[in-house]
Amino acid sequence: MGLAVDDFLGMDTDEFDAASKAFGEHEDMLERERWERMRLLGLMTVQPWSKKKLTAEKLLPLPWDGDRTLKDGTPKDTTQNHTEHDGTRLTKAEHRARAEEMRKLLGERY
Fold first, then answer.
1. CB contact set of 3 (below 8 Å; sequence gap of 6+)
2. DSSP 64
3. What is the pTM of this model?
4. What percent of the chain has pLDDT over 90?
C-alpha cells in the first residue's frame, strides 16, 4: 500500500480497513482498465478480417461484464460489516496501546 511504518502504526483497525479497501478498489480498477485496453486492441485487430460486426464484449467476455456497477467502477451496494471476528471492537485508547507495543517490538529497525 505504500504506507510509512509510522503511518501504519498510527492507524486503528477501522482506519486500516478503510485504507486497505480503497487500495484494493484502486488496484482492481487499474486491472480492469488494462483488460479493457487489451480487449479493445483485440477487437481492432480482428474486426478487419471479420464479415460480421463484432463487439469487444462478445469477442472477449470478461468476468465483470453485466455486473451492476456505477460508472466509476464501484459496486452500487457498498455496505460493509466492520465488526471484529469475535464481535468486539477496540477503543481508540486500546488501538494506541497496541500501536505503542508494536513500536517497542520493532525498535530501531524502522
1. 19
2. T
3. 0.52
4. 23
The C-alpha atoms of residue 104 and residue 43 are separated, in whole angstroms, by 56
Give the separation between CA 5 and CA 65, rounded to whole angstroms. 38
**Alpha carbon distance 35, 60 (integer Å):** 10
Locate all alpha helices (DSSP H) within 47-91, ordered by sequence.
56-59
Cell of 79: 455496505
Alpha helices in 1-110 (DSSP H): 5-9, 13-46, 56-59, 92-106
Least Cα distance to 67 among 38, 109, 102, 32 occurs for: 32
Residues 6+ apart with CB under 8 A from 84: 13, 90
Q: How far is CA 103 from CA 6, 30, 36, 79, 108, in A?
A: 9, 34, 43, 33, 9
Contacts of 32 (CB under 8 A, 6+ apart): 62, 64, 73
